[in-house]
């Protein structure tokens, strides 16, 4: 087998503090792999500038001038991590045999690239990077992430636990991915749907090299919620179940009231009445909210707006 052309796709949003170091380490890695003929000499790293507000793009331009292994894409504005990643992957699809996506902040261990390539050589079209431990995370993030994966699995969504967006996709897996044209992109959920033979690589996730996380709690929760509603309609089914339960309870209450009345007693219960009205009202609003969430999602999908627009592509 001839050495494959590898593209390493790195989405970047306000990453001026880390980009030089990331490029330096990726260059060393690519050069090493090229010299050992593990990958072809036209392999590249591809930085996707996701509408950064700092000097990220200027640094990418500079890197492209000085370093023959660097390519850069500038999106027309900030479109979020998943879309930026997709823009990079869809561009790489035309140029590579396989692409590895990783974060710009050096949290994903670059040394694991070798292991990804071994799996690829062994015939895997999809290789998932899985974190060996989560001790660099806060207690809250660790547990909320575990809860999230458990919940997704309980909903029947095929998702790889402790796998973020560090993964290898072969060219045909990328072509498969391009067929999924949903606007609400949650790559972690979509990639398993592509199929093909897959493998996993465990790696240790480091601390962010510099700069700060672009996923504050609010964004993280929205991301998780988006993942759930994009892949499962079970929350809606739960509403139906809830409806049945409440119906059953109401019959019991009715029977009770009837018996009390037949026994000639007055049915008391202003408190119960008031409490039930508020309770049922709350439950109904909550259910409406869940349904609304899905309608909102349909609204977004039918408009079918482009997921990203590429302003500049610096290729070499
Ligand atoms: N990112 C992006 N667009 C955004 C937010 C983040 O391209 O709107 C990139 C960011 O530059 C990084 C990756 O997505 O390369 C992951 O973000 P981050 O490291 O902040 O997330 P965390 O590791 O804290 O979950
Ligand atoms: Mg990070």
TrEMBL record:
InterPro entries reported in the protein's UniProt record: Glyco_trans_2-like, Glycosyltransferase_2, Nucleotide-diphossugar_trans
Membrane topology, from the record: Multi-pass membrane protein
Gene Ontology annotations for the cellular component aspect, listed alphabetically: plasma membrane
Keywords assigned by UniProt, alphabetized: Glycosyltransferase, Membrane, Transferase, Transmembrane, Transmembrane helix
A molecular function GO annotation: glycosyltransferase activity
Coiled-coil residue windows: none
Localization (cell): Membrane
Gene3D superfamilies attached to this UniProt entry: Spore Coat Polysaccharide Biosynthesis Protein SpsA, Chain A
Protein name in UniProt: Glycosyltransferase family 2 protein
